[in-house]
Structure to design on (273 residues):
């Protein structure tokens, strides 16, 4: 059995995904105080010799905070306009926070089409490799203003899995607001147990409620399990961990914390990327 600690320690190329809940506060303002310690943990990974690409949500929610209106507009044009506004807030915060450690960030806004067209995919891959080789930290988000519903990737769990596969990462870390995957909904059942290691996510997906009949099947776990399946097929591991826990990545590295790791057991092994 593999643990999250082992997966994090042994990985050299890591995609770290941060969700909107971590990035913005209840009013849709960029929550720099919550982001600062996470950026510091990412920098620790980089300083310890690992290569990191960040996938960050938060454009939509930070747009509301910046313009202080339109939070109730459901029209697609307004939603896209909010993302265009919020993306600037987001990058501004990352730029400042990484600059405190003398690191430069770069913005990559991608669409589903970029992963489907081999020529565009190659260009993205080359850009990522060049940035990381030169010590720049790429921050990826979906290019929301050109992605209408029919062609949208739609959620950043999937975007981060696509990015991990494209960049041939060894590990995808989903920084969530839950400690990992539980055997039942931890909000409902006190005796819910954290599943520390999953070696066949495909089988697991069949056995839990993914239809949303219970809370457990909704609330983002479905896209996370799908992301695990996407990366595990290329032998890339995935961790779900809680970004609200202090120094969670450092503590995981030192084996002081637990989380859920998904990895390709024997039955899922394929040969390379
Ligand atoms: N691209 C969206 C945003 O930045 C986020 C999608 C997601 O949270 O999964 O607002």
């Amino acid at each position: 059995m593999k643990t999250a600690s082992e997966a994090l320690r042994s990985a050299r190329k890591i995609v770290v995904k941060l969700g909107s809940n971590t990035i913005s506060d209840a009013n849709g303002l960029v929550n720099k105080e919550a982001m600062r310690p996470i950026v510091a943990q990412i920098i620790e990974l980089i300083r310890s010799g690992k290569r990191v690409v960040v996938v960050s949500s938060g454009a939509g929610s930070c747009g509301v905070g910046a313009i202080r209106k339109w939070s109730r507009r459901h029209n697609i044009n307004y939603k896209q306009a909010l993302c265009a506004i919020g993306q600037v807030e987001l990058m501004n915060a990352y730029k400042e926070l990484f600059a405190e450690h003398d690191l430069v960030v770069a913005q990559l806004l991608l669409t589903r089409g970029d992963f489907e067209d081999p020529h565009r995919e190659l260009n993205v891959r080359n850009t990522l490799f060049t940035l990381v080789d030169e010590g720049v930290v790429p921050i990826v988000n979906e290019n929301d203003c050109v992605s209408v519903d029919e062609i949208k990737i739609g959620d950043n769990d999937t975007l981060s899995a696509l990015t991990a596969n494209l960049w041939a990462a060894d590990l995808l870390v989903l920084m969530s607001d839950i400690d990992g995957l539980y055997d039942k909904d931890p909000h409902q059942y006190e005796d819910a147990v954290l599943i520390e290691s999953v070696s066949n996510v495909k089988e697991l997906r069949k056995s839990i409620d993914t239809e949303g009949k219970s809370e457990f099947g909704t609330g983002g776990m479905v896209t996370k399990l799908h992301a695990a399946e996407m990366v595990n097929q290329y032998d890339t591991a995935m961790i779900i961990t809680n970004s609200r826990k202090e120094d969670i990545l450092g503590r995981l590295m030192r084996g002081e914390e637990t989380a859920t790791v998904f990895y390709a057991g024997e039955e899922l092994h394929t040969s390379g990327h």
